[in-house]
Amino acid sequence: MKRAVRLIIATLLICGAGQCAAQQYPSKPIRIVVAYPAGGGTDVTARMLAPHLTERWGRPVVIDNRAGGAGMIGSDLVAKSAPDGYTLLLSVSPEMALNVALFKKMPYDPVRDFQPVTLPGTSPSVFVAHPALPVKSAKDVIALARARPGVLSYGTPGLGQPHHFAGELMKSSLKIDWVHIPYKGAAPMLVDVLGGHVPLGFAAATSVLPHMKTGRLRGLAVASVKRSASMPDIPTIAETAIPGFDIVQWYAVWLPAKTPKDIVEKLHAELLRIVHTADFKQKSLEGATDVVGSTPEELARFQLAEIAKYKKIAEAAGMKPE
User: Fold this and answer.
1) Weakly modelled stretches of the chain, pLDDT under 50
2) Are 222 and 205 within 8 A, CB to CB?
3) Domain extent at residue 181
4) Which of 114, 81, 90 is nearest to 36 (CA)?
5) Residues 156 and 107 in one domain
6) Peptide bond preceding 26 in cis form (omega within 30 of 0)
């Protein structure tokens, strides 16, 4: 018995508990929590990653949709999960950055309670117009807004979304007076913009790209600092109106804080391999998402920069935390 105990102790000293856990990982099903309903961009991205992980590791990967609370219900679940690598969060911008500028209190700390893994990709907010509006560029809209203060309106999928912040940043940067009309989702917003009831809109590329291709919407500009690979002919707001303008929806993978470093590294290496496969790149292009892939350290720095950016935009726009 004493010999067996000594052997166990020696094994732990040689490999360390974290390393042993990483060697065994994964030994059971993995859960990817998505803080939004099925069918949205976040859910689609999770379902693009899952089959690759299953094929590579031979373990089921389950998508768990926990919608509500501006993305904070699902995120809180992950923050309070065991830090063993079996519960992941695939987030977008609000629950890990924007909400800091909008809520006085959150059920978790988006920096302290999570371990960054990687940033699979980004999708720009797109500025669109109904074809009947006599504009062909963001510059035209700016000129029209200045000529008709308080008359032009633009729709977004909701308060506190990146698209809302894009409109507010344009308003404060250019000193223009236009009216924000928030909707409960992209679908109802598009009904009104496509019908000409609201002349302008900001929405995710995945939502507006099909209508741009048919000519039912006119793409004016993308809000990312660089042109999107999915729509390379559409200029950026940065190059036409506001240098450095960069508002994107970003997808990121997180683990609970205190997850062993070796597990983080193993998961990161596998996800990085997946996002650079031809299959993932092609599906991302079709879904108007630009592939990134990042180190955990790069994602951590990016998150802090995004939090600071959205706090600044909110303060300039007079958006007070609730």
Assistant:
1) 5, 8, 10-14, 17-18
2) yes
3) 124-240
4) 90
5) no
6) yes
